[in-house]
Amino acid sequence: MKPDIAGTEDSAVEGQQPDAASDTTVAEAVREEDLVPGWLALVVLLLLLAVTAAGGFVLRGVLTRGQQATPATVAEDSWKAAVERDPEDIEARLNLAYSYQQQQEWDAALQQYGEVLKRDPQNLAALYNRGVVLLQQGKTKEAEAALWDVLKVAPDHVLAAKTLGELYLSQKHYKSALFTVEPVLKSQPQYADLQYIAGYASEQLGKRDAAIAYYRAALQYAPDMTEAKEGLKRLGANQ
Fold first, then answer.
1. Which residues of the chain carry a pLDDT beneath 50?
2. How many Cβ atoms are within 10 Å of 129's Cβ, its own excluded?
3. Residue 5 burial by Cβ neighbours in a 10 Å radius (0-12, 13-18, 19+)
4. Are residues 179 and 122 in the same domain?
5. 113 and 107 in contact (C-beta within 8 Å)?
6. Which of 124, 154, 184 is the last residue of a domain?
């Protein structure tokens, strides 16, 4: 149910590669009109960057800091420059932090989320992603506190409730899981993941009727949810 990014291969040149004996003739065969104009090379590079940003593909043959560039490293350089231009640009800091997060540079991401929260203590994106990064680092107590900080500001924050609820399920803290997701479900019942968390927690607490109701609600919004179907089967209930 889990918050939270493709490998590369060298591109093959179309046609056959020249053998060693033909290297000199290849060099002699290059004519001036065969060379790519500078303006066309620039257009191709810009198109590559645009396609990469949209689709998440690795840029082949483009190097930054001595390493092959990826969308995350290209984004990092871009947002880092934006932050240097304007240290008070919160959106730029958020994007820089997220680019670090994508690259699993956890400490750098936390530093930038911290800088955002210094300027905007109730920034939900920074609060939530800080909790996710702390979870990735295995700092569950700090992550738990960070996610509750989100719910204090926005009690109906679905992602924070889901992430925290899943954490409690993994720890077998079923009452805490229910306590976390039930308030959100009252205002936003359409989230099948939250319905499932509530159902599983209820099942483990021996609340059979409540568990059945939650599992059925989950299937109402996500008819193919295998976990909810299995929950009903365990409880001997029909869908």
1. 1-36, 39-41, 43-44, 46-66
2. 25
3. exposed
4. no
5. no
6. 154
